Amino acid sequence: MSSLGRVVINGVEYSPDEAVVSAFDRGLQFGDGLFETLAVRDGNALLAERHYQRLQKGCLSLGIDTGDSFDAIRDAAERVQSDVAKGVLKIIVTRGSSGRGYAVDEGLPPTWMVSLSEYPDWPAAFAKQGVNLRICKTPAGRNRALAGIKHLNRLENVLARAELAPDEQEGLLVDENGDVIEGSMSNLFAVGDGVLATPDLTCSGVCGIMRGALLETAAELSITTKVRQMPASGLAHWDELFLCNSLIGIWPIKQIKHVGKYTTGPITRKLQQALREAKIAVVDV
Question: Does 170 have pLDDT greater than 90?
Answer without folding.
Answer: yes
